[in-house]
């Protein structure tokens, strides 16, 4: 008998799936439920379900984050994605390469049961299979791409001995002595911008779309298979294969292929990508060397040659500048300007540095990335200065919490990024120095006490008081013994008990007064907090 897990924060949606699903037909002996991805992971570890239906939009942990955990820790688990968004025409096919199916809300009985039948048939075949290799091979749209990805990654990372894994190598065609190989590293320069504009801030969907564009292109005898680099957020790895010919042919065709791909990504989605292709190799075991060269090639692309409106394809690396790109004296000037409260002087230091970079013969992407990270790190250290161990920290190596995208597709955008970083950090540092933190924490508590029924987010307070999220949460807990979210929950539950004393108020009315979206959600929260439902609490009080 199969065990199924439904993960959705809306109880009516879970109930609809229970009612519409033909569980008897797929021989499902148990159907479990979870209200968010975090609860779902706990149940997954404890109950070991065969199939999971997961909603994409949930509190605590959404569907995308849940799928990332599954991909890493449970790669053979069957999942069906459920989403309320119907404007991702390309996404349906993109996600299918990683999951069994993709269903849109409101759930259609026919679509749901067809997806369940498909999953059940493959699961049944899996349980009847004795060979692990055949077991993984029969899963078609789910396991084969993922298995190929794992094999290629293992080879690239040198975690597998090729000669000892002939069965798996047959799956990727590496048992053909006439095969030639080549690797390409693709970096997406405007990923955050396009994710926000075209993919509803779902970066995983953008990556799925990119890999599908690459994988769907094919030429006679020449194939390309791509997947996200788990270690570099904005990178896609492409493995090219060619049957026959001399080794050098695949290098030429790979570069030509990537020029076409980079152009199509720009036309379809507005994605600006740069790619670097490594040297051709004749043995699959040498693929790691080709990829390492591809990394060096893409790292060495000259930022000064990028125009911000088109991508770039490179097949050979260039050396970086010989001179030091930053110096202690320049940071000392920046420190002095910030400590003096002189924003224009601080900008002037960075502008002068940018002018120096602009005058170099070349500026590699790798060097530009290091410069940006070093600037943020040094500004963060400055924010901790003065011997105050409780000073609010700037986000480590990240500008996202300051509302700045960490991406650029031209030197002009890179220069603007440096200036924005200094501006944002300057105001954060100066405001933090002047803030009366104890007053701020008291005001936050007062706001929650008065507005507990609203959708309260920590970001509301970080922006108002110029404090980092981690530092703000730490101060609040030190002063009141609760985290901010815990305190909101406490106030709501205390108020709930008070309102339940009034027998004239219905549970639905109380739920709305407390800011819950429906009474079922409120009832669940109340039970979790007090170990009994609102109705049981009210009856207990009346009996007393």
Structure write-up:
The chain is of the alpha/beta class and 544 residues long. It folds into 4 domains: 2-137, Response regulator (Rossmann fold), CATH 3.40.50; 171-314, Reverse transcriptase/Diguanylate cyclase domain (Alpha-Beta Plaits); 328-434; 436-544, Arc Repressor Mutant, subunit A, CATH 1.10.10. The chain has 23 helices and 10 strands. The strands form 2 sheets. The protein has a 5-stranded parallel beta sheet, sandwiched between helices. Strands 7-8-6-9-10 form a 5-stranded mixed beta sheet, sandwiched between helices. Strand 9 (273-277), helix 12 and strand 10 (312-314) form a beta-alpha-beta unit. Helix 2 (37-47) packs parallel to helix 3, helix 14 runs antiparallel to helix 16 (411-434) and helix 15 packs parallel to helix 16 (411-434). It is flat. The two termini are 47 Å apart. Residues 86-90, 130-143 and 386-393 have low confidence and may be disordered. Residues 3-120 form the Response regulatory domain. GO terms for molecular function: DNA-binding transcription factor activity; sequence-specific DNA binding.
Task: Give the topology, please.
Blueprint lengths: L1 E6 L3 H10 L7 E7 L2 H11 L3 E5 L7 H11 L4 E6 L5 H8 L4 E4 L4 H19 L4 H6 L5 H14 L9 H6 L7 E10 L2 H8 L4 H14 L5 E7 L6 E9 L3 H23 L3 E5 L9 H13 L12 E3 L13 H12 L3 H16 L6 H19 L27 H24 L2 H15 L6 H8 L3 H12 L3 H17 L6 H7 L5 H12 L3 H10 L1
Helix pairs in contact: 2-3, 4-10, 13-14, 14-16, 15-16, 17-19, 21-22
């Amino acid at each position: 008998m199969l065990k199924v897990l439904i993960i959705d924060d809306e109880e009516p949606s879970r109930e609809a799936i229970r009612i519409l699903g033909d569980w008897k037909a797929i021989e499902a002996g148990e159907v479990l439920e979870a209200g968010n991805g975090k609860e779902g992971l706990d149940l997954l570890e404890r109950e070991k379900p065969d199939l999971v239906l997961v909603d994409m939009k949930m509190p605590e942990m959404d569907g995308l984050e849940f799928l990332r955990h599954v991909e890493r820790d449970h790669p053979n688990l069957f999942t069906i994605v459920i989403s309320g968004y119907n404007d991702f025409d390309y996404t349906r096919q993109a996600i299918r390469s990683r999951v069994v199916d993709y269903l849109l809300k409101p759930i259609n009985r026919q679509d749901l049961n067809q997806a369940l039948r498909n999953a059940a048939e493959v699961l049944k075949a899996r349980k009847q299979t004795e060979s692990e290799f055949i077991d993984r091979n029969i899963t078609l749209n789910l396991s084969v791409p993922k298995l190929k990805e794992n094999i290629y990654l293992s080879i690239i990372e040198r975690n597998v001995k090729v000669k000892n894994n002939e069965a798996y190598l047959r799956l990727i065609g590496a048992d053909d002595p006439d095969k030639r190989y080549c690797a390409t590293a693709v970096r997406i320069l405007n990923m955050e911008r396009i994710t926000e504009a075209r993919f509803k801030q779902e970066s995983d969907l953008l990556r799925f779309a990119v890999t599908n564009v690459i994988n769907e292109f094919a030429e006679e005898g020449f194939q390309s298979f791509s997947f996200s680099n788990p270690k570099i957020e904005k990178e896609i790895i492409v493995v090219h294969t060619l049957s026959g010919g001399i080794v050098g042919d695949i290098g030429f065709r790979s570069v030509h292929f990537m020029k076409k791909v980079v152009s199509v990504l720009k036309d379809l989605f507005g994605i600006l990508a740069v790619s670097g292709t490594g040297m051709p190799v004749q043995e699959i075991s040498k693929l790691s060397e080709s990829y390492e060269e591809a990394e060096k090639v893409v790292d060495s692309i000259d930022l000064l040659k990028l125009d911000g409106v088109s991508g770039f394809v490179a097949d050979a690396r260039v050396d970086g500048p010989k001179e030091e790109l930053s110096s202690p004296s320049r940071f000392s000037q920046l420190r002095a300007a910030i400590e003096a409260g002189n924003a224009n002087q601080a900008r002037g230091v960075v502008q002068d540095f940018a002018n120096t970079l602009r005058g170099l013969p070349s500026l590699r992407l790798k060097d530009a990335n290091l410069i940006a990270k070093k600037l943020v790190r040094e500004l963060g250290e400055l924010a901790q200065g003065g011997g105050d161990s409780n000073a609010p920290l700037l986000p480590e190596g990240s500008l996202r919490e300051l509302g700045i995208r960490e991406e650029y597709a031209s030197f002009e955008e890179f220069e603007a990024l440096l200036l924005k970083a200094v501006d944002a950090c300057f105001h954060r540092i100066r405001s933090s120095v002047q803030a009366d933190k104890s007053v701020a924490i008291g005001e936050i508590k007062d706001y929650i006490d008065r507005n507990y029924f609203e959708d309260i987010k920590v970001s509301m307070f970080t922006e108002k008081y110029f404090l980092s999220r981690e530092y703000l949460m730490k101060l609040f807990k030190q002063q009141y013994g609760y985290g901010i979210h815990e305190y909101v929950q406490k106030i709501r539950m205390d108020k709930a008990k008070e309102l339940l004393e009034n027998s004239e108020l219905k549970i639905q009315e109380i739920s709305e007064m407390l800011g819950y979206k429906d009474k079922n959600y409120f009832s669940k929260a109340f039970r979790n907090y007090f170990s009994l439902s609102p109705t049981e609490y009210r009856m207990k009080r009346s009996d007393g």
